[in-house]
Amino acid sequence: MLFSPGGLGRILPAQAHRMIQECTAVLLDVREADEYQAGHAPGALHVPLSRLAAGTDVPGSPNGRGLVLICRSGNRSQQAARLLAERGVESVDVTGGMIDWAEQGLPVQDAHGQAGTVI
Asked: Is CATH 3.40.250.10 correct for 9-103?
């Protein structure tokens, strides 16, 4: 299983995409609003790291699906995974973040559902 106790596992963008497509995981984008609106993975939930650090609750994983975290490059998602692990929430983060996601040709959309960009 990719989800390790402590929430410090890491997966590649293609693995995350496959898990989302197979409905075995929920993708949580932890970037700030302007970054998310410019370009995010379709279906990603949005809770910025700054809000998680301030104590905002994590959206529940419907039907027991795993929680996959993503940011721009993988740094903030690792921070979020550590923060969530302290709260007892298991998760994994995407190595290389949205930069690698987009470079691998995975879908990126903007706030209007059009082709997005990673900023």
From this structure: yes
Active site residue 23: no
User: Residues near 40 by Cβ (< 8 Å), separated by ≥ 6?
Assistant: 29, 31, 46, 98, 108, 109, 110, 116
Full-model pTM: 0.91
- Each residue of 18-28: b (16+ CB within 10 Å) or e? ebbeeeebbbb
Domain ranges of the chain: 9-103
Model confidence pLDDT, tens digit, residues 3-23: 444 446 999 999 999 999 999
CA gap 81, 66 in Å, rounded: 12
Residue in 71, 83, 94, 98 annotated catalytic: 71
